[in-house]
């Protein structure tokens, strides 16, 4: 049988993040908190990077009796998630003190939630998935309510907690049913069962998958399980919303992709139409409702629902041979999406002023003249979300749509395009308001622009570079070509 | 040099625009001068192409083909033939003209304006030189961003509404184009096993049946919107009116042509049979647009708006020529690219000059010919070119288009010929009301053209006259390329239509 030998380098990033998260509760100095967290993240990323680079091609480290598997795929997400967390921390550098939040708790919860997220892409056992989801989610529930004096923040925290608990329960149900059918919930065993199922127990299995899809759908805010999203995104502190929109979504897609691609792929015929239908409903729900939002955080919440729909569309194109391409397209899309949303919520956190008072889209009027650099970043993000070349968002859509068309779902791609068209208006509106309207908000007493600017410029450069770049910038940040190549090898390691 | 000339034409303005952003925004003169020098270098470079371009060769020249994202089959492939040559030279040469026309017009945020103008020019040159569909799409979209800011930030009344309409309309079209391009590439991958977006490769894997029709419709929608084909033209008048005159000059003069160019370069050669079956409908739309826009122009009381509709009407003539799928008509249409850009563009600039003095409402003018004889002379000359007076370049293109249309579809040709009459009606009526007749009562007489304004408009007028009398150098560069593009199209269509006849009976006659 499998021995219990532990590959420390693989799990070290998770341990670093978790220990730092626990340790931070004992600290009170804000600068120290931020510095330590960022150092820990850098260290974790470095360890993961070293592990990735020195591992042979196609490596697969199955640890703890198959509960977790570390491969190129899990490393891709480790680096992406750590990147999201690091950018969030920088973006929030001035935001947390401005909002007088309890900093040691916030930093510690953020790191703890990240530690859960880091397990998710590697989890190859449904209980591991469940525990990782809970580690991630419980910390996030608390983070959403971190602006303790704000009613909206409290309300959304409670709302998220209650609905999230229901979702967890449904996932647990799904796990139970799957276990009842397959006799195991380790992914390889599940795949074996799915490949040659016992007809008598197949319905139970499918019911289990259905439960899991509902639970997963909640986590990534897929319609019709999306109802919590706008309220929670609106109520949460802006940088935390950014973290939720990016890291939580990326981590959730990480395990959904692994679950669907590894465990449930042999029964794809049973779920593909459901997922396609969910993708269509999700895209339309997100885009149509985003249309009528006046609050920019709510608009972005619906927009994130829409983007979930695009990525779910990619799930339908998964298959063993071409799956690497469809999966890689989702990974690329996630990177593009994370970059835009972190930058956007960082900017909103800054622009909304103390107490997040200015969060209407109309409040951004005249921003273009007042903060040209920041406005340019927002405009680039909007262009990327619409999918205008040469941004990463455009290439993300390209990879995703071509994967879908390739698998014979051209109609789905057309629906995707119709949705992109719907989205043009509300993204464009932000740019129009910023540049073409007379200012109505007072931005005379603003502080803390520097960290936001660092995040904004980094993301904007990356958004463009991940679009046009065929090589790596400074050997560190890959352009479209190397990023896609990396995503492909990552996804290929799943099969 | 030959290898890089097209890349330089695209990226020199980009680099110059980035350079502008590094300059202090306060040094307006420096900014204008720097942008102007960059644009002039580009213009000179483009004009040098006229010398080095070999008119006898039908294929693409000055080609560069480098991998960009090789695993996705996307390449950086540029090249021009006679058709794109016209547009490249026009863009590069008209950009400094537009910059000069902006000199006193643009007073705030000068740095941004000049940077966007340069980027606009770069995007347009990129679009007409790209031979990779993906690259083309990138440039096709990139044109939109500068236009968006140029109209939205520096436009006149109704600019916000006009920009949003403009961008939403054109994006709708191009997103469908995007799916169709992807579909083509996927089909190519399915048949050959490799990814490619090269135009030549995609043409080698033709689509059939309903897939071809849908793909053609997606292409046609994008290009119809861009070129303002009826009923997709409604963004155009709003945009032309709201944009500052030099931007309108570029948008109507060149950007609209890129929509027509899309039909010529991509939509028709990629889907010849679909194009042939859609021909009656497209020609019908062009014909309706031509007459409808002309009639609306007749009713306008604002010169700028009148010109906007006249431009839509003339674009319809060009589109009619393209949809005729006839050698003469195509050559005439490409020639009209230049003639229309110079005439309509020139008129927009002149109206911009009038607007700086007094506004654009016809009622405000009358009899100003006495006060400003020089401007009046140029205005009348350019108007004559616009209505197609023989001896000026507008005549050549229009005549060839109508001739080609008549030869292939005589009824449509006859109806289309009335466009010349409508054009003459609204333009001459406008000119007579604006420049002649009773002198208006006003405090001080209007100033005639300044030296800067003369520098803007006189070269345009000279080119109009020159190419009107000596069209052959331009025509010869277009003709071989048109033959090379249209020849195979008509051959395919003929083969397709001849097939049923051949299978019915005589195999020998059909199969030679």
Low-confidence stretches of chain A: none
* First-to-last CA distance of chain B: 45 Å
**Helix-strand topology string of chain A:** HHEEHHHHHHHHHHHHHHHHHEEH
Q: What is the residue-mean pLDDT of chain B, rounded to a whole number?
A: 84
- In sequence order, what are the helices and strands of chain B, one letter per element? HHEEHHHHHHHHHHHHHHHHHH
Largest interface: A-B, 35 and 35 residues
Average the pLDDT over all residues of chain A and give the rounded result.
Answer: 90
What radius of gyration of chain B results from the CA coordinates? 23 Å
Uncertain regions spanning at least 5 consecutive residues of chain B: 501-512
- Going across the biggest sheet of chain A, name each strand in turn: 1-2
Helix content percent band of chain A: over 70%
What is the overall number of helices of chain B?
Answer: 20
* Strand order in space, largest sheet of chain B: 1-2
How helical, in percent, are the residues of chain B?
A: over 70%
Classify the secondary structure makeup of chain B into a structural class.
Answer: mainly alpha
The end-to-end span of chain A amounts to 22 Å
Supply the key terms.
heterodimer; A: 495 residues; mainly alpha; two-stranded antiparallel ribbon; 20 helices; 73% helix; globular; B: 512 residues; two-stranded antiparallel sheet; 2 strands
